[in-house]
Q: What sequence folds into this?
């Protein structure tokens, strides 16, 4: 035992080596994450077009501009609609699917897991292109099949509401599998004894889900909830950029796309930076909610 | 008492329908990519081409430097993957097997960056890459991506499953850290390293947002950027060529997934990304 402690002590004496091992990662993070982060905060207080040699200090004007522009409210409104749709398609649905595949079904589990995860490996540009054709309102296969029933497909890329819905669908196609697999892993880790006992007592399926599975996988559930919002909104960027460029008249733009649009189309780095910081603050609030939930003693697997 | 069986037929129908929706686009793309434009427009619902043709692939190779574009995509994905795996492995090793000042805070800060939207770092990163003259170069795409917070997280998770006593005994036997990494830790977490590596490779292969900011000329394009040239919301006339480029873009990721499927699904469901 004393030999072990001695070993551990020597172990500790060499701890400077840790910094050496961390150095490559920290170097990249310093240049391409931490410094840019601070510089974006700095830029959000200046008026600049990325080319001009001088930046003009404007204080909080960029933030005021964004918060007083009616267009911003449309864009933030869109952002929340995207969040709502993505939460249903990429958080609620995979949760139920993972539960059913793990606990209800006996057969084809492996096939379902493998097939549901598959689109997660395909480029979202590919997904955007494929769905643009498949959902083409005139000559696409879906329009043709709807035509048999006398139904007409909306010209979704030109219509408020519809455009957000379809772009969310395309994004979900990509994001669904990853969220599903993560949730499946968590549900799969729940002790079977409790479930079997509940089933012996003839507890209905929906109660098993809400009263046992949901609380016992809640840490992962919250993780998926957060990444659905944070990464989902960033994934939506690709179909927006590829298919609509935020149109028609900002109807499909969200906070992430608009920050890009302000910076690299309109060259207003101040507005872009301020919008990015505001978006991040919203995300941070969500993150804090997560931490608070976890601290409250939510059930943590393992 | 007999346990009542859950009704499973409706669920099977729901899953099969969902999988059909998820997989149909892939089948549709493969089928259409071998059709002539005429055939594609006249027989939308016939997935199998009447007269299979390679002309769409030919058009892609004739109109764009397709081989160069594929090679670019591969180089970016390979270099990014190799570096991310190495930097993440080393950092994770430090977090698991060393005690040092600020460890918890540093880990928390690194992991928090997963939640920072890319728009927050996009302008300064673009400015840095311009300043060092790497715009319109694949190295400008690669450079900011050489480390990865999710990679550190995943590798740390799997290293923590190795019993600490094993490492302590190795230290008592005077094994250096390099030897411990190479002969103990790496072999034990190899499945996780492989799956993480495949995930990095595929993510980078499919990456769009950052390359589209950096790469300007078609000679430097990656496959997703080339593909984007064939789209317009009205449809355009390059439909079948777009399908051919889509197939080329997704074939490598899909092949990797199908080849390592059990491995990947296993790692994602056992080590758990939590």
A:
């Amino acid at each position: 035992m004393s030999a072990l402690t001695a070993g551990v002590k020597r172990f500790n004496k060499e701890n400077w080596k840790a910094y050496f091992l961390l150095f490559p990662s920290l170097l990249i993070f310093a240049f391409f994450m931490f410094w840019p982060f601070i510089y974006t905060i700095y830029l959000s207080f200046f008026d600049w077009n990325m080319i001009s040699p001088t930046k003009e200090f404007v204080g909080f004007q960029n933030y005021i501009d964004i918060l007083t522009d009616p267009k911003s409210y449309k864009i933030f409104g869109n952002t929340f609609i995207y969040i709502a749709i993505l939460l249903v398609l990429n958080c609620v649905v995979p949760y139920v699917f993972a539960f059913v595949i793990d606990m209800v079904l006996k057969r084809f589990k492996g096939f379902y897991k493998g097939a549901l995860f598959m689109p997660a490996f395909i480029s979202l540009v590919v997904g955007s292109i494929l769905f643009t054709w498949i959902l083409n309102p005139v000559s696409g296969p879906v329009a043709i099949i709807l035509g048999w029933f006398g139904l007409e497909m909306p010209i979704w890329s030109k219509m408020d509401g519809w455009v957000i819905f379809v772009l969310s669908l395309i994004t979900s196609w990509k994001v669904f599998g990853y969220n599903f697999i993560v949730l499946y892993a968590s549900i799969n880790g729940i002790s079977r004894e409790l479930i079997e006992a509940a089933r012996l007592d003839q507890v209905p399926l929906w109660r098993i889900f809400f009263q046992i599975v949901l609380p016992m996988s809640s840490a992962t559930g919250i993780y998926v909830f957060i990444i659905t919002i944070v990464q989902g909104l960033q994934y939506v960027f690709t179909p927006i950029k590829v298919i609509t460029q935020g149109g028609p008249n900002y109807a499909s733009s969200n906070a992430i796309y608009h920050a890009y649009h302000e910076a690299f189309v309109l060259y207003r780095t101040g507005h872009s930076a301020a919008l990015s910081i505001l978006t991040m603050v919203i995300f941070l609030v969500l993150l804090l909610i997560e931490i608070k939930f976890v601290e409250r003693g939510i059930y943590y697997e393992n | 008492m007999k346990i009542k069986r859950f009704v499973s037929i409706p669920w099977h129908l729901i899953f099969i329908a969902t999988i059909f929706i998820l997989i149909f686009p892939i089948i549709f793309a493969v089928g259409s990519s071998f059709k002539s434009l005429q055939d594609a427009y006249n027989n939308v619902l016939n997935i199998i081409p009447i007269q299979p043709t390679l002309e769409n692939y030919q058009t892609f190779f004739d109109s764009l430097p397709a081989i160069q574009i594929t090679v670019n995509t591969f180089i970016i994905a390979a270099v990014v993957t190799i570096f991310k795996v190495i930097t993440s492995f080393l950092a994770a090793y430090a977090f698991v097997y060393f005690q040092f000042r600020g460890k918890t805070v540093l880990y928390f800060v690194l992991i928090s960056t997963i939640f920072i939207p890319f728009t927050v770092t996009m302008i300064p990163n673009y400015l840095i890459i311009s300043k060092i003259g790497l715009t319109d170069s694949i190295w400008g795409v690669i450079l900011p991506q050489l480390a990865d917070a999710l990679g550190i997280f995943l590798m740390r998770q799997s290293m923590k499953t190795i019993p600490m006593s094993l490492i302590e005994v190795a230290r008592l036997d005077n094994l250096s850290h390099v030897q411990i990494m190479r002969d103990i830790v790496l072999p034990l977490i190899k499945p996780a390293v492989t799956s993480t590596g495949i995930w990095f490779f595929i993510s980078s292969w499919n990456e769009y947002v950052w390359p589209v900011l950096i790469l300007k000329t078609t000679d430097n394009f990656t496959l997703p950027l080339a593909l984007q040239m064939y789209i317009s919301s009205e449809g355009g006339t390059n439909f079948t060529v777009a399908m051919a480029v889509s197939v080329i873009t997704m074939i490598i990721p899909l092949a990797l997934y199908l080849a390592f499927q059990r491995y990947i699904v296993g790692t994602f469901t056992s080590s758990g990304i939590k």
Observations:
- Chain A touches chain B through 117 residues (CB under 8 Å).
- Chain A has 13 helices and two strands.
